[in-house]
Amino acid sequence: MRFLKTSEAAALLNVSPNTLRAWERRFGYPKPQRSGRHRLYTYGEIASLRDALHEGLSISSAVSRAREGLTADTHSLVGALTSFELERADVAMEAALALRSLERAVEEVLLPSMEEVSKRQGFDSAPWAFAAHWGSRGSAARSDSRRRRQGRCRS
Questions:
Q1: Is the pLDDT of residue 81 over 50?
Q2: Which residue in 50, 102, 112, 134 has a CA-CA distance of 20 to 30 Å to 83?
Q3: Any idea what the Cα angle at residue 69 is, between residues 136 and 84, rounded to 5°?
C-alpha cells in the first residue's frame, strides 16, 4: 500500500494542499489516515480522483466517479461470493487492498460484502457458509492462491 503526504497528493492532483484539505472537508474525499498530526492519503484514492479530474469533470462529479470506482470492489466481492468463486473473491479483495489499508479494506469492502451476502441469501444459506469460510481463510491462504495463479500464468 502506497501512502502520500498531503503535499505529494496535492502535487499529483495539481492543486494546493489547502485545496486538497478543503475537498476533504467538503466532500469527505479523499479520506486520509492520520499519522499523528499528519494526513496520509492512499495512492489509489488520489490516482482515481486525478483520473476523473483529467476527464474534465467538476470536483463534485470527480469525487462521485472516484468513489464509484472504489465501491466496485464490494460489488465484485459479493458477486464472487454468491457464485462460489474462490479465486474471483481473492482477486476482488486483492484489488481492494491495492487501493486501501488492510483496516479500510475490511471496513469498506469485506464487512459490507459479508453483510450484503447475509441480506440477500440469509445466514443459513450455502452462499453465506461459503462467504464465511472464505473470510475466515485469512491472508496466508489468499497469498498461496495468488502464487498458484501467477505460476499458471507463467507456464
A1: yes
A2: 102
A3: 35
| Residues 101-124 pLDDT 10s | 788 788 888 998 999 999 999 999
- At 151 the pLDDT is 59
> Torsion angle, CA of 38/43/48/49, rounded to 10 degrees?
30
| CB contact set of 77 (below 8 Å; sequence gap of 6+) | 89, 92, 93, 96, 109, 110, 113
* Alpha-helical runs (H) found in the chain: 6-13, 17-27, 43-54, 59-82, 86-99, 102-105, 111-121, 126-154
Residue 141, C-alpha cell as written in the block: 491462504
Here the CATH number for the domain that contains residue 14 is 1.10.1660.10
Give the whole-angstrom CA distance, residue 16 versus residue 137: 43
Parent domain of 77: 70-154
CA distances 100 to 40, 44, 84, 105, 151, Å, are 11, 7, 25, 6, 26
What residues form DSSP beta bridges with 5? 40
* Nearest residue to 111 via CA among 99, 121, 96: 96
